[in-house]
Amino acid sequence: MVIVLERIKALQDKGKASSDELEASKKELAKCQEEIAASRKQVKERAVQDVADAIAAGKIAPKDEASKTFWERALTEDYIAASKQLNALPKNPAFDDVNAGKPEGSPKEPVTGTAALRSSFETELNNLNK
Asked: Is 42 exposed, middle or buried (0-12, 13-18, 19+ CB in 10 A)?
């Protein structure tokens, strides 16, 4: 009978140790899940910023919600591959800073967007009238 009681006590101790290990594992799992959630949030924020940068560069139309959603999802799922593809898209040259119609040596004030197109057009028109 003493042997049986000792064996029961040993099994109870083993069960308690396993229970403690389980609790420690649960705490570690919760910590890992929090880290994963934080990482996902950072990736999502970075994806949104990259899409905003692509819109500013003229790579994505500002009102094209389908494209914005697509790129945000693609960047969130596989950032490295999607960012390579997004960076490979051509920029819209109308969004580039240019010094159109400025003679050499004059103060350089960047002209962008429609102002760049207008300035370039006026310069060409002036050159044709000479």
From this structure: exposed
